[in-house]
Amino acid sequence: MHSGIIFLSLITLSFGASIANNNSERNVRIVGGEKAIEGQFPYMVSLRPSYTRHEHGCGGFIISSRWIGSVAHCMINPIAKLLTLAVVGTVRTSVGGTFYRFAMWFNHPEYNIFERKNDIGVGRTRSTITFTPLIQPIPLGSDFVGAGVKAVISGWGTLDEPLPIGQFAEDLHWVTLTTITNEDCINLMIPEERHRIYDENICTYDGPGIGACNGDSGSPLTANGFVIGAVSWALPCARGTSEVYPRISSYRPWIMSLISRDE
């Protein structure tokens, strides 16, 4: 793994087992973004270890009253899968929100942590998520999304990078990004990482100083009221290279096959 490549989560909810390099041991949020207001992103989820109820680990999104989506690398530890809290209905990590535990978690069966392939996962909560104006699901995108689409990511952290190790943020931030073709995504990536961009990925690029960063893993990329991606990996924090997400339309059939078990 190239020393500059990072997964965009702080602790990957694996109870201290970082899977990124030394540069990733910081929790930072959307670079170049704006602070969100209550109810602006009612589908947002903060995934947190149960022993630190107010310490954000990864992002996620509400799919339905019992299912939450994120990325697989946030839930690689079998114990973490059952001891992680999903917090919804708040834009601050220090106060508010409703806490849910998972009954089960499924990472994609062909997830490859080393090749960063099929980095997608979904979890079923133990109890039904109660919807309110501040807590709502977001539909999964089923259509292929091409280049030039304005999309939004939201996540927790700080606005800049680098930051002192262990500095945590409280407020949800968001930013608008632009989707690009996979060909452009590959060309914007360093040569040794280009083979890790697959047809099942979607990418964004808006130049240096704007984008996702550590702590944003699993946070949804949305457009036109649908989730179209989830933050997976990039070169360090908005440094002028493409950012990579699993393409939700590619994984929707797998996700829906799991959800259909409840029906």
From TrEMBL:
InterPro entries referenced in this protein's UniProt entry, alphabetically: Peptidase_S1, Peptidase_S1_PA, Peptidase_S1_PA_chymotrypsin, Peptidase_S1A, Trypsin_dom, TRYPSIN_SER
Source domain of life: Eukaryota
Signal sequence region: 1-16
SMART domains xref list: Tryp_SPc
UniProt record, GO biological process: digestion; proteolysis
Location relative to the cell: Secreted, Extracellular space
GO MF terms, alphabetically ordered: serine-type endopeptidase activity
SUPFAM superfamilies for the chain: Trypsin-like serine proteases (SSF50494)
Gene Ontology CC terms, in alphabetical order: extracellular region
Family indicated by similarity: Belongs to the peptidase S1 family. CLIP subfamily.
Name of the protein described by the UniProt record: CLUMA_CG006794, isoform A
Organism: Clunio marinus
Taxonomic classification: Eukaryota, Metazoa, Ecdysozoa, Arthropoda, Hexapoda
Gene assigned in the entry: similar to Chymotrypsin-2
